[in-house]
Amino acid sequence: MTARKVKWGDRRDGKKVSAPGLQTVMTALMPKRTEAEVYLNTTIDATNLMKYLEEKNAGKTEGKMTIFHCVITALARMVRERPLMNRFIQGYRIYERNEISLSFVAKRRFGDEAEEALIYLVPEDTDTVNEISRKIIGDVKEARKSEHATGGVDELLDKFAALPRLVLAGSVKVIRWLDFWGLNPEFITAGDPNYSTILVSNLGSIKCPSVYHHLNNYGTNSIMVTIGTLHKDEVLMEDGHREIREVIDLGATLDERIADGFYFARSLKLITYIFEHPEILEKPLNEPSGYDYQ
Questions:
Q1: Looking at residue 109, what is its pLDDT?
Q2: Which residues of the chain have pLDDT under 50?
């Protein structure tokens, strides 16, 4: 995204914006993100998407594109077309992020005792699902080279966790104060999912259904999305007949202070439209999807 000129009231990671009176007052009436959570849940027909993936992965033995890669791309496109979804509240003010970012947790290996790695992705405006898929595969592969954190936010968290309890508690209070005023140093916030546009949990990868996941008061993350398992279900088609289709459940928790329900509903419809027309994923993010919001 293009760089913005920093003005008074802006943060390093976002531009201060004005909003209608009710929305602005809500930042003071409900200062905590967890006080302003709203929940959305939908079941999306993924039949066309699965056919698309079958064609994309034909003849491949590794580096295959997955549903998760497509969901990440669809979410990035949705935020690109629906800019209010890229806002956050901090310090009783409303900000628009300088970039679109998506984050998720990857297990270093599948086991009860295995550590988790935090992955933070900033797609380019010219990226398509092909580039985003390659980036995700590369980031996850790099994270799984070691059983333990080897740098970035993971290693920083390990250092904080090793502090004596009293020192840790004091450090957290200072960090929260800096967070309120937008003064946290970049080495603390860089790569932290709590500062991403959307935090995604791919529960389908561990055979779990989508759930409602809480937001955090720390950081700036305003949207949490969970992806459930792919399964078959009866779907009512446009012509009125019922058909068994492949579907996937999506759950979302949002900060209602960044936009209204009408805006959220339209954003969700765009995700559904992309699943029904997966060829849109081949377009660069800065190219309109063609969805008719009317």
A1: 59
A2: none
Domain ranges (residues) in the chain: 14-282
pLDDT of residue 19: 84
* pLDDT given at position 211: 85
pLDDT tens-place string over residues 102-132: 999 876 555 555 566 788 999 999 999 999 9
Name the pTM for this structure: 0.89
Sequence-distant contacts of 243-246: CB under 8 A, at least 24 apart: 245/45, 245/46, 245/47, 246/45, 246/46, 246/47, 246/50
- Among the four given CATH numbers 3.30.559.10, 3.30.450.20, 3.50.50.60, 1.10.260.40, the one describing domain 14-282: 3.30.559.10
State residue 195's pLDDT score.
95
